[in-house]
Design goal:
alpha/beta, 14 strands, 236 residues, 7 helices, Metallo-beta-lactamase, Chain A, 7-stranded mixed beta sheet, binds zinc ion
Amino acid sequence: MILDILGCNGPFPAGGGACSGYLVSSDDRKTRVQLDLGSGVLGRLIEKLDPARELDALVLSHLHFDHMSDVPVLGYLLDFTADRPLKLICPETPAETRKLIKGKFDVYPPADTNIGSMRLEFVQGKHPVETYAVKVICDGSTLVYTGDTNDCAEISLFCAGADAILADCGLSSANWGPAKPHMDALHCARLAKEAGARELILTHLSPLNDPEALLDEARAIFPSAYLAEAGSSILI
Ligand SMILES: [Zn+2]
Ligand SMILES: [Zn+2]
């Protein structure tokens, strides 16, 4: 499968950047699922495909704005151009944020499902709001996107055997703690190592952190780590 990084910042974008947004496509590009649609991602998604006709589903890991703020605007696009509702898989809470999502969406709670040639599986992460990691199995490969989460046993178990892990590296190691909402590079690297993954992609990159320092920390434990880069396409 192909992973297009459309945006990789959080909790706010760098200049010219975008928050979380990842387009996953089967090798034949007949099945296409968007994971998260944070600030600045929708315009980049439209460069890749027509969301009204060519997107099979949108999955939101959780309802923090850096992962979903472009969804109401996508609702406008669908109102004007879609003949059918778009499948949207997202948590029910926080209810006040969930109410902001209106329009031509068929909404489902996160639950294991098949979409085209993809298998999607979910597990809850550890974050201040209801949040899910997403596993995508397609074309013989497995990708896990952790969503926003701190280190926890459920996520470790879920990642076991993944080929690639797209991991929340929202904190520097100096700022990490067990009660914090994100992992740091060390925890991402340990997660990938224990999972036996082939590669680790560090994402949710904060403009407040030095990305090269995060990368050095991760590579000391897991050499096949690299930084998510908006605009890049990765064959998983
Ligand atoms: Zn976030
Ligand atoms: Zn979050």
